[in-house]
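Input (structure):
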């Protein structure tokens, strides 16, 4: 329906690859993370940069703080907001050593990284547990309305 005529707002149409990235991000349980490379590997398509680009453009629609850099450093420009989420969710962190130039902690990747095989808090299987069937379903998804918020990139419009 046309927004100008008082109908419901149009839902964003995400590119197919971005939609698959966002679906994966939505499945990462609170307190856990996947790297950009992990997401690309699970999708069997693209690489860390492509996942990063999808998250930068559309990531505000999902728990963006759960898709991270492999080195555990917090996302530049969004460190404080991400840190609030990590602490609220109990995500394992490594505090900065005394005297370190950057006083912000890093993610403890050894403990926080999610392999996608375990069930999340809702009991739903993660991306890796769904296996090829899950990937095929994601690949066939046409990007129609998913109930996500409008695009805004890595939390720029995060609640």
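Output (sequence):
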């Amino acid at each position: 329906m046309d927004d100008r005529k008082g109908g419901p707002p149009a839902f964003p149409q995400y590119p197919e690859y971005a939609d698959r990235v966002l679906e994966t991000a939505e499945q990462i349980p609170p307190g856990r993370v996947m790297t950009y490379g992990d997401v690309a590997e699970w999708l069997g398509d693209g690489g860390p940069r492509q996942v990063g680009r999808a998250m930068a453009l559309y990531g505000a629609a999902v728990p963006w703080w759960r898709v991270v850099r492999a080195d555990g450093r917090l996302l530049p420009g969004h460190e404080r907001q991400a840190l609030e989420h990590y602490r609220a969710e109990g995500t394992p962190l490594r505090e900065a050593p005394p005297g370190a130039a950057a006083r912000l902690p890093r993610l403890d990747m050894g403990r926080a990284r999610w392999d996608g095989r375990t069930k999340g808090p809702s009991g739903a299987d993660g991306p890796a547990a769904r296996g090829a069937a899950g990937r095929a379903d994601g690949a066939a998804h046409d990007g129609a309305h998913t109930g996500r918020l409008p695009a805004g990139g890595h939390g720029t419009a995060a609640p």
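Notes: The chain has six helices and four strands. Confidence is low (pLDDT under 50) at residues 120-124, 128-152, 155-159.
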